[in-house]
Amino acid sequence: MRSRLESLLLPLAVAAVLIGLWHAAVRLSGSDIFPTPGQVLTGTVELAQKGVLLRYVIASLFRVSTGYVLAVLIGIPFGLLLGWFGSAFKAFNPLIQLLRPISPIAWIPIAILWFGVSDLAPIFLIFLASLFPITTSAIAAVQNIQLVYIRAARNFGLNGVALFQKVIFPAALPQILTGLRLALGVAWLVVVAAEMIAVNSGLGYLIIDARNAGKRYDLVVAGMVLIGLIGLGLDWLVRQLGNLDEVQWGLGR
Amino acid sequence: MSKLSKILLSALGAVACIGLLHAWLNLGFDPARLLQGKKAEAEEEMLRVGFLPVTCHLTCPVTDWINQNLAGKSRFEPVRFSGWPELKEAHLSGATPATFMLAPMAMALREQGVPVKIVYLGHRDGSALMVRKDSDIRTMRDLRGKRVAVPNRFSNQFLLILKGLKDHGMTPADIELIELPPPDMPAALYARAADAIISGEPFMGQTELDGYGRVLYQAKELWPSFISCVLVVDERLIRERPEQVQELVTGIAKSGLWLDASMEHRMKAAEAVATNYYNQDSRLLRYVLSKPPDRVTYSKLSLAREDFEEIAALALESGILDGPVAFEEYTDTRFSENAAGVGPHTWEAP
Questions:
Q1: B95 touching A (Cβ < 8 Å)
Q2: What's the rounded Cα separation, in Å, for the pair B13 and B19?
Q3: Closest chain B residue to A65, measured at CA
Q4: Residue A246 confidence (pLDDT)
Q5: What is the pTM of this model?
Q6: CA distance A170 to A16
Q7: What is the DSSP string of A32-93?
């Protein structure tokens, strides 16, 4: 009970101190461009009153979840295959390593040329950003399975689909989930860059739009805070997956 | 069913719900219309027109606003961008067959083989070279060794600086030129990241309104009847839907004259555009459209050879263009000629 309370109170105390420092820094520097925490809060309330806050959150969640789900649907099977078949791994791994370090921002021009101005372009960017962590973690997960599991399964006569379903997938799951958690963070991270493309909704758009709106840096920071808070929530959700019995397999606990 | 599959299913369900909510809240998806089996009519007739929230492109939203009020709907859909590269790329992708664009950028695209034609001007004047109020920069010469921000190297503001330097016996090597998106310029000037900034309004006026910027030169002082942006269309659009291009050009001509007809028109347009198209505080647009009233003008928007030859010469000199380009090559003047005789919209904003 005490540790529960602590894990709630300690971060809140840190946040309170930081917000206090932020406020003091703006006041002391006399900046009338950089917003105080209070102004950011007022800006957020203004957004909510205009009815755009919910719309923007939904729009960003839509783009991130669609791009992410596509990446999961393609990345996990692809990664499992490459992890299992050595020659496929040899064939594709250099390509993956070549594409992986390219920032989604670099893809923006190409995304616009291919997909024009619609939701597709940001979804494509988020898909790209999350595809590589998911694929590489699935590859590594299969490659790291202890051989003894597979030998034992074979001794019991398991082969093909059954081997995959009963042994390989469950054994790889914990590491795949780590990749999923990482990828969701990355997907949410690129939402601002992805929404730089002419969409007219979303939290990334909110930040870009606020830059167009003159001295509305309160809305820029409001967008940042909202992205952070939602990211925190998403991470918490994915972490809950790790507590399931099914994924404790292979952790040796 | 295992716990894991339950969780996966509910995650997929949540994603689907978010998708539906997004379609409803942001994409204007109307379930009622779907049930009636009615398709949105004349979808293919809509022409998307790209623009940035700058006064150089003001006639784009104003034309749409007046069309909405006069006819209840518009055949043009203004699509707002935040930066030059995205605006250009969307045009190249075909998403915005018509777009407002920097004149030298359009010429350079043409030179590179992109089938674009300049059909009309967007504005006259409407740019200013700003410095900090407390700086001791008083003339072009004082800019020596200073950092000057321009919107883009394909911008006419960049050429304007070159012209100004030349007229004062200086060269680009005398100053430090940087490229900065116009929305970021006021903050850069405030934070002293740039000593001078130049772009289309309202970003320059904003520094005055917020009390730290001072006009060093209005564009017209360095380059009379300055043009920065033009209306560009894809050649295919001219071939396939010339009447729609004409409608757009005539609409812009009439809106421009309407804007210049009275200060009352300007103030009402500022209010409507700031709220519905720019998402800015309308104080800013009201300020740049009135102080002084000829800070930016929208009356003489016909294509004139001399204007472009001057731009082309500077662009060639600065290396934006590789070789000489012919006026006939990058413009199509027929729409501008047909719009020459029109008067302002006969409409009073409510």
A1: yes
A2: 10
A3: B15
A4: 64
A5: 0.79
A6: 42
A7: SSSPPHHHHHHHHHHHHHHTHHHHHHHHHHHHHHHHHHHHHHHHHHHHHHHHH-HHHHHHHH
Which run of H or E residues covers position B47? Answer: strand B47-51
Q: What's the CA gap between B10 and B13, in Å, rounded?
A: 5
Half-sphere exposure of A37 (CA within 13 A, CB side): 11
Alpha-carbon distance of A200 to A122, in angstroms, equals 12
CA atoms within 13 A on the CB side of B63: 25
Going by pLDDT thresholds of 50, 70 and 90, the confidence category of residue A237 is confident
Beta-bridge mates of residue A231: none
Q: Which amino acid is at B161?
A: I
Q: Which residues of chain B have pLDDT under 70?
A: 1, 29-44
Spatial contact of B272 and B131, defined as CB atoms under 8 Å apart: no
A149 vs B129: CA distance, rounded Å: 72
Residue B274 DSSP one-character state:
I
Helix (H) or strand (E) holding B169: none
Instruction: Please name the member of B21, B82, B85 whose beta carbon is closest to the beta carbon of A212.
Output: B82
Q: Decide if B102 contacts B182 (C-beta within 8 A).
A: no
pLDDT tens digits along A186-236: 999 898 888 877 678 899 889 888 877 767 889 999 999 999 999 999 888
